[in-house]
Amino acid sequence: MNTIIELMLKISDRNVLCFYHKDTNTFDGWPVSAIQMQNLDPNERLPLKDENNFRFLTYDEINHKDIMGFFVKECVEDKEIRKRLFNILRKHNYVEPFIEGLRELNYMMNLKWHVVISTDNCFSNGLRKTN
Predict the structure, then answer these.
(1) CA 90 to CA 109: how far, in whole Å?
(2) Tens digit of each residue's pLDDT (9 = 90 or more) over 62-109
(3) Hey, which of 32, 96, 102, 103 would disulfide with 107, CB 3.0 to 4.6 Å?
(4) Which residues contact 95 (CB under 8 A, 6 or more apart)?
(5) Is the dihedral of CA 53, 51, 119, 116 positive or negative?
(6) Rounded CA separation 34/17 (Å)
(7) d(CA 52, CA 65)
(8) How far apart are CA 12 and CA 98, in angstroms?
């Protein structure tokens, strides 16, 4: 589960596509798994509905700011810490500084639990859209 959370938090480039492969239980940038790649005919088209390979959420689909803002609003009780985290979210590039702020304040584990629920919902909705 931590892998998905860390992957989601690391997706900061709007042009990156990431795929999950059931058969190898891995994430990478290829639309087919390493096992399928070995048997792939270069002239064959990829299927429209694929039961093994799933595109992970894009940067725009993740909506980091909403997830992080909701976390601060609902899970951080200290007013000074909440103010500090909301100030980070006002910046243009806020993902890395926000994560660093959480680590400094020992809130990273709380965010991970919050993101597990959010990611599960987003990932499930994304899978419904692609299949």
Answers:
(1) 22
(2) 777 787 888 888 888 889 988 988 988 888 778 778 878 888 887 776
(3) 102
(4) 9, 12, 64
(5) negative
(6) 16
(7) 30
(8) 13
